[in-house]
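User: Fold this; tokens only.

Assistant: Input:
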Amino acid sequence: MKQRYSKAQMDYRASKEHFLQVSEQSDKRIASLQEDGNEVTQEEMETIIERTGLHRAYNDLIQAENVLINWSQTAIRNEKEFMENRETFEALYEKVKTDQEARGSLIHLAMKLRLE
């Protein structure tokens, strides 16, 4: 049976893949400058980030993460495990904006949710 993903999950996967590709391009450009014996200046870094679209890809990824987290909060409301551990889950969702580990855990859990 083929796995079905929500729009939030698919958008997150696409944004993450795009960010990783753009990040790799940026790393290659930086490495190329360094191989030539040049020190990479702040101005050059900003130019690389602008030309590769790294900043935009990062912002798109963060937005996709936020949508995914919000979707997951709604999607798990009727799950047995959520109802049995409501306080734990709610505390985790409260930390999402201030605790990167909690954010990562929620994203990981959200990607495991499957549509019936």
